[in-house]
Amino acid sequence: MRRVLSFVAAVVVLASIALARQAPSAGPYKVLKTARVGGAGNFDYVYADVDGRRLYIPRTAVPGRISVFNLDTLEPVGEIPNAIGRGAAVDPKSGHGFASSKPVVMWDTKTLAVIKTIDVQGGPDGIMFDPFNERVYIFSHQPPYATVIDAKEGTVVGTIDLGGQPEQAASDGKGHVYVDIEDKGNIAVVDAKTMAVTAHYDLQGKGGTCAGLALDTKNQILFAACRNPQAMVILKADDGQIITTLPIGMGTDGAGFNPKTMEAFSSQGDGTLTVIKENSPTNFIVEQTVMTMASAKTMTLDTKTDRVLLIAAEYGPPAAPPADGRGGRGGRGAMIADSFTILAVGK
């Protein structure tokens, strides 16, 4: 009987922990605005051009397009046609934008006019602009795992074998690029000058299937948002030493760090946004769990207004039970027409 009671008690504790990981908590952040902008097509990444005050959202309905919104009002300002892309990035210096499409589409950020298309191999997915040498990284889940493009000229500089499937990346602006390797449970460190991988930081079972990555450049702290287990792994960027792990929600697919507030964020497909406070380079806490909207798994940060922007949509009942660990994405039904929504979270 005691064994039975002990087993029951353990199950209750584990269930309570799982519930607490996703339960909303009090704090300064809340959904400030929702814009139900509608439109057909699936979605993945969202990108805030903080300097240009525009929000870029690729939609994949054939023939593909990138919807562009005013970052302050969330009103539509235009579209970039014929781009079936997953993400977008902007070089504010040259005024050139790029989509992780095949071919890569390059446009003028002032007029939204397409400048050129750039042939690349693999299957473009994630994307990152590195201000260190004005280069755009196009990430793929198949070789070549990264294609590097000169943002000024729109030419391919080279490719990088990252040793696995990349997701989100972060740059310190000083010649180091860090990339989540989703299928290997590590973070690849890239020398931006030589385009060579110099290290892999093993997350040692603390986090796997990591899809979000953010960086505190001042203190050289990495935040890896992982799905299995559901955790934010916090580690040193200079040597990969793991500092701590903290619980997050289910189905993370994006992360960010705000240096003004010293807070890291992880967006989850279960409709939560986890806010982690960096009290010091060795002290971190889960500050708040914000309820957002189911399927809001990716995010971008507007560092001018300190708002987090997320994208989501409503879906019909699933045709089969979810099985991919992404907050129900694999088993959900069809998207409800014109339910696509932009959410702005802030204080």
Polypeptide structure, described:
The chain is built from one helix and 28 strands. The chain is mostly beta strands and 347 residues long. The chain has one domain (25-346): YVTN repeat-like/Quinoprotein amine dehydrogenase (Methylamine Dehydrogenase, Chain H), CATH 2.130.10. The chain has a four-stranded antiparallel β-sheet with strand order 1-28-27-26, with no helix packed on it. Strand 11 and strand 12 form a beta hairpin.
Give the structure's gist in a few sentences:
By secondary structure, the chain is mostly beta strands.
Spatial arrangement of strands, main beta sheet: 1-28-27-26
Beta-strand level of the residues, as a percent range? over 45%
Mean pLDDT: 91
What CATH calls the topology is Methylamine Dehydrogenase, Chain H
Structural class: mainly beta
The poorly predicted ranges are 1-21
The succession of helices and strands, N to C, reads HEEEEEEEEEEEEEEEEEEEEEEEEEEEE
Question: How is the topology of this model organized?
Answer:
Blueprint: H1 2-22, E1 30-36, E2 47-49, E3 54-59, E4 65-70, E5 76-81, E6 88-91, E7 96-99, E8 104-108, E9 114-118, E10 124-130, E11 135-140, E12 146-150, E13 155-160, E14 166-171, E15 176-181, E16 186-191, E17 196-202, E18 210-216, E19 221-227, E20 230-236, E21 242-247, E22 252-258, E23 263-268, E24 272-280, E25 283-291, E26 299-302, E27 307-312, E28 341-346
Antiparallel strand pairs: 1-28, 2-3, 3-4, 4-5, 6-7, 7-8, 8-9, 10-11, 11-12, 12-13, 14-15, 15-16, 16-17, 18-19, 19-20, 20-21, 22-23, 23-24, 24-25, 26-27, 27-28
